[in-house]
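Please, structure for the following, as tokens.
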Amino acid sequence: MKQIFDETGVSFVQNYVLTLLAADLLLETQLLRADFSAWMHKTFDLHLNQQLQIQSMSGIFKAALADAIANCWEQGLTVSFTKETRAEDDTPDQKEIHVFGLDHNLSDSSQLFAHPLMIQILYKYAP
């Protein structure tokens, strides 16, 4: 069942993924890495504006984000996620996405441990 893309929905998905058997976890992280957009659409009940936001992200950013999330999950770590906007407020040009720890979680065959990853989605307030 698809989850709403908010803190509760993301928490539910992460808890589910982290309880998967090793082979199923590997499959899930491979799907995430292969196509971030498709994985998001499969996993979350996205509002039209959320779909547009994902479409507008650069391929490089989506690949790096998917890889960092997958690295965390494969190490048994959850990703810290906060989102202050509601789906109807998710106008792409009115949001800021902050990702902390992304540069430390990129794929590297010599990397033994994932680093903490934090994603924040904030609404831009007009001055």
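The longest strand covers residues 95-100. Residues 59-74 form the longest helix (16 residues).
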